[in-house]
Design a protein that fits this description.
Chain lengths: 530, 47
């Protein structure tokens, strides 16, 4: 059954990719789906990209072993806040400036090849390293479950990714994400509650008597609160500037779509995670003694729910891997084709050539990913330690400085990106080898972030922005996505009534979700906390 | 009452509260004045 589900999931991706390819007629369609993204599509791609194998395998395993509160209470909370910042602050501001990719921002803001190249290198290594290691980890688990040999598993995954990324570009990614989000939501809405129901809230609460501290933030390992707070800060840094989430905003039709997607998407982040972590805790009642804790949710799907539901759960797990990987790899292809080859090389290309180049880049990325994942060179494990978090130190200070600081200039950007990233790797390596003993509540990412910010401020205050940078800063400060949206809507027939309708709709969604969240989390608190 | 469990669910609620509050603030700051101004202009035109 498991391998059948695997092939059905791949078939959905490939068929959707083929169908969607017909909509891709221009460069803008390929890179930002012609900026036609509706709220459903943007929420779909945001939530599907957010949920990855890290939640369904790694953190679920830790929740089973140490207690559901260990990561969820503060670590995941940082990720939710980071997601909010990525969408409503960084993504929305970049969208206002007409960015189609995140490297666009560096190019527009500094107009400096050195800044653009450093930003691109950080992005390509960061996304590839993070994406490949997730694919390897998830592929190994799925290979065990389905019985399909690991190299074949990777080849099939990358071929499916290739079909809908190369043919459909951002269209392919957004639409497959939205379709497959329903399998992921089924895990949170049906399968996880089923597991919790099987175990019973009273039995779950009683786990705290058998396993002291199981229902505490420190967990059974009694981790110090300083460690949990450092996780909170690290995950904010990790998520707020990651291109995978920020770039979900670029295909949005207008500002109202972004605002509605922010409310619903940020509601779905804890909704999809916390209920799964509690279900992982319920597995401790249903089947204590699982040694390979990463497999806890898979065992739940296969052995503790009806087979039909288990199949959907497994499909949701595969989709969570595919949706995150597709976003990471499609962005690498975009960076190679659009930002590196076309823009930095200043190649003049027509629409057709540009579209072909974008597709060739996707083929190249898929081939590289496939080879690295199958060969598993030891360097990829080393790169992966730093890959995901590098945006927090390499990009975040420069992006925020670029958006908000008048004195920000290309020298400060280069210094901050290089010093921040260098400090991150150096401090982490030294602490790993015991040369610098770091206290548990201080993560190397936090120190290197502070170093990156300090470098930015020192260089920024000791140098001056050039005329272009000064001028662009003023242009940027006078550019608002709200103004653009108002202009677009009021230019239509019955513009004012359409504007009022969008305003009311967004307001109703914002207020409604406060009540929905209060109901859901209040219910769980009453059942587990009182 | 388990205070740690309370913090988990409060943080989950706070996330939605925060995102909704930011969106409502943007709507009232950026859109409401424009809508009111346009309504006023339309009323004056109708007179």
């Amino acid at each position: 059954m498991t391998s059948t589900i695997f092939f059905i999931v791949l078939a959905i991706y490939v068929i959707t990719g083929g169908v969607v390819a017909r909509f891709v007629k221009s460069k803008a369609d390929f890179y930002v789906m012609g900026e036609k993204g509706t709220t459903v599509l943007i929420v779909g791609t945001l939530a599907a990209t957010y949920l990855s194998a890290v939640t369904l395998l790694g953190i679920s395993g830790q929740s089973y072993a140490e207690g559901p509160l260990v990561i969820a209470t503060l670590g995941s909370f940082g990720a939710w806040i980071g997601t909010l910042l990525a969408v409503i602050y960084i993504g929305r501001k970049m969208k206002a400036l007409g960015c189609h990719t995140m490297p666009d921002f560096f190019e527009k803001r500094f107009n400096n090849k050195k800044v653009s190249i450093i930003a691109l290198i950080i992005m390509i290594i960061g996304l590839l390293g993070y994406g490949v290691i997730q694919l390897i980890g998830a592929g190994l688990v799925l290979s065990q479950v389905t019985g399909i040999a690991f190299p074949w598993m990777i080849v099939l995954f990358t071929v499916a990714l290739l079909v809908f990324c190369a043919l459909g570009g951002m269209y392919g990614v957004v639409i497959t994400d939205t379709i497959m989000l329903f399998t992921m939501l089924a895990i949170s809405c049906i399968i996880a509650p089923y597991l919790i129901g099987q175990a019973g809230f009273e039995n779950m609460k009683a786990l705290g008597e058998q396993l002291p501290y199981y229902w505490s933030i420190g967990g059974t390992e009694q981790r110090p609160i300083g460690w949990s707070i450092s996780q909170f800060l690290v995950w904010i840094l990790f998520f707020s500037c990651t291109p995978a989430l920020v770039s979900r905003v670029f295909p949005a039709r207008n500002d109202f779509v972004i605002l509605k997607s922010a409310v619903i998407g940020v509601f779905l982040a804890p909704f999809m995670q916390v209920i799964v972590f509690i279900a992982a805790g319920s597995m401790r009642v249903l089947q204590p003694g699982i040694e390979n804790t990463d497999n806890v949710m898979i065992i739940g799907f296969l052995e503790h729910v009806p087979s039909f539901l288990g199949g959907i759960g497994l499909a949701g797990l595969m989709a969570s891997i595919m949706s995150t990987a597709s976003t990471l790899f499609v962005l690498v292809g975009f960076a190679l084709a659009r930002d590196l080859y076309e823009h930095l090389n200043e190649k003049k290309m027509d629409e057709k050539q540009s579209l072909c180049l974008g597709r060739y880049a996707q083929i190249l990325v898929a081939a590289v990913v496939c080879i690295i994942a199958i060969m598993r060179p030891s360097a990829i494990y080393w790169i992966s330690i730093y890959a995901g978090a590098v945006f927090g130190v390499g990009w975040l200070p420069t992006v925020v400085g670029g958006l908000e600081w008048k004195r920000m200039n290309s020298k400060a950007a280069v210094g901050s990106m290089l010093i921040g990233t260098g400090a991150f790797i150096l401090i982490d390596e030294l602490s790993r080898r015991g040369v610098i003993p770091l206290p548990e509540q201080i993560d190397s990412l936090m120190i290197s972030f502070a170093v990156g910010v300090a470098a930015l401020l020192i260089i920024g205050f000791s140098t001056r922005p050039n005329e272009y940078e000064m001028e662009y800063f003023h242009t940027m400060k006078n550019t608002s996505i709200a103004d653009k949206t108002i202009q677009e809507i009021t230019a239509e027939k019955n513009g004012l009534s359409k504007l009022k309708k969008q305003y009311k709709q967004t307001m109703v969604i914002s207020v409604s979700f406060i009540f929905v969240a209060a109901l859901i989390w209040g219910y769980f608190f009453i059942r587990l906390g009182l | 009452m388990n205070i740690d469990v309370f913090i988990l669910f409060f943080n989950a609620f706070l996330t939605t509260l925060l995102s909704s509050a930011v969106v409502i603030w943007i709507l009232r700051k950026k859109y409401l004045p424009v809508i009111r101004k346009m309504e006023k202009e339309q009323q004056e035109e109708n007179k």
